[in-house]
Write a structure and sequence with these properties.
Elements lengths: L2 H6 L2 H20 L5 H7 L5 H33 L1 H19 L5 H13 L3 H12 L5 H29 L2 H22 L12 H4 L3 H6 L5 H21 L3 H8 L6 H30 L1 H16 L8 H28 L6 H29 L2 H22 L1 H5 L3
Amino acid sequence: MDEAQRQKSPWRRNLAILWGCTFVAGIAFSEIMPFMSLYVGELGDFSKAQVSFYSGLVYAATFLVTAIVSPMWGALADKKGRKIMLIRAAFGMAVAMFCMGLVTNVWELIALRALQGLFSGYISNAQALIASQTPRSNAGKALGTLVTGSTSGMLMGPIIGGALAQFFSIRDTFFITAGLLLLTGIMSAFFVKEDFVPIPARPKAAKQKGLLRGLLSQFANPKLIIVLLFSTLFVQLGNASIAPIVSLYVKELMHGKGAFALVAGIIAALPGISNIIAAPRLGEYGDRHGSGKVLVAGYLFAVLVYIPQGFVPGVITLGILRLLVGISDGALFPTIQTLLTKNSPVTATSAIFSWNQSFQALGNMFGALLGGTLAGIFNYNVVFIATACLLLINFLMLWFTEPQLRTGKA
């Protein structure tokens, strides 16, 4: 789709609809997260170290499978369209989520989390659809706005999930989540419009190069694409390392008393508040002044707000710092996606977003395993320090390998 076709496409309409769909999907994905570790603890007589370790496995299972299958789903999206991938992801995950409410042991939960990963890809395909239709001059703002849809849902999800788990049961929350994903699939089927033109098949010689290598041959600057993909991995690794232990950390800070499931949900939701405010504005700033500048500032800010989280005296201080994390996420995730869009040919849009999801899934997997392992061996504060160090390493990688990012020319 050339620039003239993008101007005439229904990208604004689809952006509004997919904002709503990703909002509902965000609620579905996030409302189970604050109490997943608590759910693991209910499935057996585990020690603190065992709960941390199994929680890491539960989180990682989905993302391991997602990392493997995402490029294949992306290739299929280029042949069949992004809309059908949205429907496939929503309905498939609804089935997996419903079954999670019926498990009797932790291994069944791990297996179903893996099944959820098999059907993953809703948000990445929504991003690819919008990126393929939006005029390049509006890409940063459009993708930044779309991110706030899932972020808004993820903001509400932990609070809703924490309340449901506190006042009803954890199992009921899985059934409600399945219903929300079913609603997302229906909305995608009936309201999203896509005039899809299949991407021509690559020559046999290109296919023989391998999926990623063949894809990179289409880019003017493949090194930049690789750096951005690994940046996605590192940023998501940082976020995911916290996810398995946040409810356990809150429970410890509250000394095991009070409505800690609900408080954990609120703490988990706080980054979304600042993300909603920051992401579109930072995306628009990047469109005008250079996305690379936003990316660099986001990394430095993230390092500064992660370290103190391991030394907080109570949940209020933790909440303030988690609120600030949303600003760094609003700078990092949409900006990486915008840079991928602006530096990608039209023929590689779905493929590159699928590979980006693969790297994001790997970040989720390694982050969950890292967080659970470090918390089990040492303590919760070590997880926050390790996360800050990894983001600093990623920043230095960007600074020295792609100098055009710091000048805003990328």
